[in-house]
Amino acid sequence: MNFLRNLLASILGSLVAFAIIMGMFFIFLILMGNSEEGILVKKNSILEIGLMMPIMDYTGVDDTDPFGGLWASEMGLDEIIHAIKVAKTDDDIEGISITTSFLQAGMAQTREIRQALLDFKASGKFVMAHSDFYSQKDYYLASVADEVYVNPVGAMDFKGLATEVLYYKDLQEKTGIKMEVIRHGKYKSAVEPFLSNTMSDENRTQIKELLTSIWDVILDDVSASRNISRADLNTIADTLGGRTPKLAVASGLLDGTLHFDQYEGLLKEKMGVGENDELNYVSLTDYIQNTNKNKLLSGSDKIAVIYAQGEIFFGEGGKDYIGQGLIVDALKKAAKNENVKAIVFRVDSPGGSALVSDIIWREMQLAKAEKPLVVSFGNVAASGGYYIGVGGDKIFAEPTTITGSIGVFGTIPNVNELAKNVGINAEQVGTNKNSVDYSLFEPMSNSFRKVVLESIEETYGTFLERVAQGRNMTVAQVDSLAQGRVWSGVDAKANGLVDELGNLDDAIAAAAEMAGLESYGIRQYPKYKTDFERFMEDLGGMKTKIGQELIQEEIGTEAYKMLKEFKDLSKQEGIQAKMPFSLNIK
């Protein structure tokens, strides 16, 4: 009976897999049939920017791959910026309407989009904004518009920046599951939640200064766009003077309250369209598909842009994490390609494996010996993220970039107390004095802790030397800025940890100047496998992805983030050079 049931299940599974593959094949045929037509952009169109998906610096999809956009769950910052640049000179695009709510992007990414919209406005075309709800990040982006509106019964958030750090010391004691911690750096608070139930003065100081620096950038940008002084903006934040739509309008944050149909009436006036006529919208996602092949920079000479994004783990790497495999291969290809005259290395990473960071750093040195190499920091370039970038000829950071965090730690799980509570006793047998160095089920010995601490101190010393060499400082100078402390891009520049404040375009322009190029094209690395390719390699892959989405839907986004952080802890092998905490700035 079991055999028959298993046989039927296997047959059914095969039929389902075959049906899925055939369905994908028909989609492929449809895509191929429509690929030549593209998206039709009508005359007198409005580009609608509604950023609903998470934004990554780079999705790594091949433009020629018909399956590249299937199951897309993120948008690429590079594609968003490119589309806005094309729209600036597109005669069919009359203006932009921003309808974004709950923007899923980092502060540096948000500012890069904002800067692109400022450049778009320089063409004389309009930028308008409307939303039912503005979070602070949503408003920061929308404030660039000529006019900003909200639903009359909507909401507005403008109160300053804050973050929250969770501590687990009591939880460890109650469960008997703890993390053994060895660290260097008084600010290295990635492991502080495992050692204490309260925030240290050093950690509180650095978080406050970091948030204040980022808030100052937001104030400057909003002040320039809305013609409200920094002092008045802080007063509005302190008194919650924008907590309701009416108060937000009275304070000058918004231009008015409108239902969406009323907002469209304003757009029709700007477009010279009759009240009963329809507006021609083109969505950003459609416009990206239409403009991806429209190269704004061209030439036989190329600048390679290599993207390193996510935490750093040992392995091949992908669009979600940095591994030495893809990054080293990309650096080698760019260095050996005769058409590539300079390299820009884009980093968005909180760090991770110290070993992988050093492997990538070494490859950066080899590439730099061949060609100019400029580094661009995105949302985060901290600890291992800073480590891999410090080898460039010049470093650019956004004012809101979180960087630095020069420090090292190690965490090792231990279940000795839990094992005793549930009646588990582990016995070890070894041939030599140190052959049994560590067991999850036994307290960490002083001799083992000493060995790990020696490794951490050695790694920290190497980290300091790498930074000192790259930034033309003494080791003592670096150490005074290190100890695991994080800095904003503004403060990092003031302390000599980066060279210039600017975005990816600024870094590319600097690389072109260093290589003596007047005209050039861009070549992006690496190319990632699409979701379809991963699906075809492992039909269980989509099941995993769907399962993750279902879990997130059931427990909520915030709880899912916590779950993911615990899961990521299990991936940490060896000594870590990682950002001191997970910051959700809100």
UniProtKB/TrEMBL annotation:
Subcellular location field: Membrane
Entry GO terms, CC: membrane
Active site: K188, S383
Gene3D superfamilies: 2-enoyl-CoA Hydratase, Chain A, domain 1
Signal peptide start-end: none
GO BP annotations listed: signal peptide processing
Keyword tRNA processing set for record: no
Transmembrane segment boundaries: 7-32
SUPFAM superfamilies documented for this protein: ClpP/crotonase
Keyword terms of this UniProt record: Hydrolase, Membrane, Protease, Serine protease, Transmembrane, Transmembrane helix
Domain Peptidase S49: 120-269, 367-517
Pfam families reported for this sequence: Peptidase_S49
GO MF entries: serine-type peptidase activity
Family: Belongs to the peptidase S49 family.
Name this polypeptide is given: Signal peptide peptidase SppA
Annotated gene: sppA
